[in-house]
Design goal:
By secondary structure, the chain is mainly β. The chain has one domain. Strands 1-4-5 form a 3-stranded antiparallel sheet, with no helix packed on it. The longest helix has 4 residues. It is elongated and about 60 Å long. The two termini are 26 Å apart.
Length: 66
């Protein structure tokens, strides 16, 4: 079972951290209004999340996350 299944009722706080790396892209429009090729070079990024919630009883949680 998951850790949530074993958690106690009441107030809780959780957090997440993530990392993303996207490859470079080349876009070309071959439609009626041809647009020149566009090179996109995205930066690497980090994602952070914090959540606070309340579990009044089994199988129900109220949570807000940023």
């Amino acid at each position: 079972m998951s850790p949530v299944a074993y958690s106690l009722d009441g107030l809780y706080v959780s957090g997440n951290i993530g990392f993303s790396e996207i490859n470079d892209m080349n876009l070309t429009d071959r439609g009626m209004f041809s647009v020149p090729q566009k090179d996109i070079e995205p930066d690497t990024g980090m994602a952070l999340a914090v959540a606070i919630g309340y579990r009044p009883f089994d199988m129900l949680r109220l949570e807000g996350e940023i």
